[in-house]
Amino acid sequence: MVDTSMATTTTILSSSPTVLVRRFFSKSSLSTYRCQLHLPHLKSSSSSTTTTTTTTTTSTVRTAISSSSQFDLSPPPIDHDLLESMADEGAEISEDGVVETFGNDEEAINAAIEDGVAVVDLTHFGRIRVTGEDRIQFLHSQSTANFECLSEGQGCDTVFVTPTARTIDIAHAWIMTSAITLVMSPITCRRITEMLNKYIFFADKVEIHDITKQTCFFVLVGPKSNQLMENLNLGDLVGQPYGTHRHYRVNGTPITVGVGSLISEEGFSLMLSPAAAESVWKTLLSLDAIPMGANAWERFRILQGRPSPAKELTDEFNVLEAGLWNAVSINKGCYKGQETISRLITYDGVKQRLWGIHLSAPAEPGSTITVDGRKVGKLTSYTSGEKEPKHFGLGYIKRKTASAGGQVNIGDVLGTVVDVPFLSNQTPLTKMSTTGLPTKETT
Length: 443
Description:
This protein has helices at 81-88, 105-115, 135-142, 189-198, 225-231, 274-286, 294-304, 338-346, 421-424, and strands at residues 8-13, 19-25, 31-44, 50-64, 92-93, 99-101, 118-121, 126-131, 155-161, 167-175, 179-184, 207-210, 216-221, 245-250, 253-259, 268-272, 290-292, 352-359, 368-371, 374-384, 391-398, 407-410, 413-418, 429-432, 438-440. By secondary structure, it is an alpha+beta fold. The chain has 3 domains: 4-123 and 215-301, Probable tRNA modification gtpase trme, domain 1 (Gyrase A, domain 2), CATH 3.30.1360.120; 126-212, Aminomethyltransferase beta-barrel domains (Alpha-Beta Plaits), CATH 3.30.70; 351-426, Aminomethyltransferase beta-barrel domains (Elongation Factor Tu (Ef-tu), domain 3), CATH 2.40.30. The protein has a 6-stranded mixed beta sheet. β20 and β21 (391-398) form a beta hairpin. α2 runs parallel beside α7. It is globular, with a radius of gyration of 23 Å.
C-alpha cells in the first residue's frame, strides 16, 4: 500500500460526471489509483430490449502497480451469470460456453473496422500463468520473443514453435511483478501447457498454471476504443506502447487492462475476475460498445490477416512464412527453433508468405491456389459477409509468383492478392549485416 501521509493528492474529473478518480503519488514513485465508477445497471425488458435503469451500481477500482501480491488470481469459479445475462440479450451460446453471435455480426464488424467500438468475450481463449524465479529465462528459451529485455508492466507477442520453427501458436504475454501471463488460442492452450511442463528441469524454479477457468477475458476493438477508455477514466493507457498493462480492482476483485486486442496493436484487452465480469460487460455496453460474438470475431480475424492455429499456424508452415516477424528475436541467445530461423534469414530462405485474397465466390479452405495453371499455394481461411469484401480468404503463396494486386485462381474462383493490416504491420528481418546482426527490411 502507498503511504498516503507522504503523498500529494490530485483529483481528476472525467468527462462523465459519474466517474471520480483520486490519484496518490508517493515519494517512492509507487502509485495507487482509487476510482469510484458508477456502473449503469442494465437489464432486459419483457420485450428482450435492453434498458438503463435509474439505479446505479458503485464499484471501487484500485490500481496496484507496485505489488502483484495485491493482485490475486484466485477469484471464485465462474457462476455463469454473465452468460445468462448475454443469453437474455439474445446471444446464441454453444454447449461449451462460447458466445457465437448476438445476431448483429455485420453491425459489430462495422463498428470494429469503420466507426465504432466492439467488445468481444474471449473467455474461452487459453490463459497460462508462469511463476517462479526462473520464469523469464525459461520463456526466453521456449519461445521466440526476447523476454529478458522487458520490464514489469510491459508486454509482447511471442510464438511457440517446434524445433524446426514450425508454428504452434502466437501468444500475447504480460510481464507482471511475480508472474508472466500468456493468452493464446483455446485449441493450443493444453498443448502449450504440457509442452512447457515437459521442458521444466529439476533445478528450474518455474511453475505453469492454467488460469483459464479462473478468469474472464474481453477485448475492445475499433476506432472509438480510445474514447471509450477515456470515458472509463482509463485514458492514461491511451497512446502507451503495445503490451503495456496496469492492474485495477472492481468491487475488490482484480482486473488487468492492457494495450492491444490480440488481433491488433490497437484496442485494449481486459483480464478480470468472473465476479466482476457481468458488471464490467454491462458498463461497456452502456458506453456504446457493440457486442461481438465468436462468428464475427473469426470474420474480423480473417479480414485483418491474423494467422490462427490449425489454419495458418500448423506444422506445414514456419514462423517467418506466417509473417510473425515482430514476435521474433534473433539476437537473444539459444531458443527453440532459433537455428532454423537464423538460416532462413541469413540465406533468404523464406519460400512463401501469407496474403489476403479477395475472392469472386466462395472457396473451400485447403484448396490449391494456382497461377496460369501452376500450383503456387494453399487457401487456409475463408469468410463471407453481406458487405464488401463479400468473399475473402487468407492463403500461402510462393514468393515471386504473386504480389499485391496479382490474380490467382482457387479452382474456378478468381482471386486478387491484397495486403492485410496485421501482416502489413510486421517488419521483416533481412540477411545478416557485416556486424553479424540482422537488419530490418527497407522495401
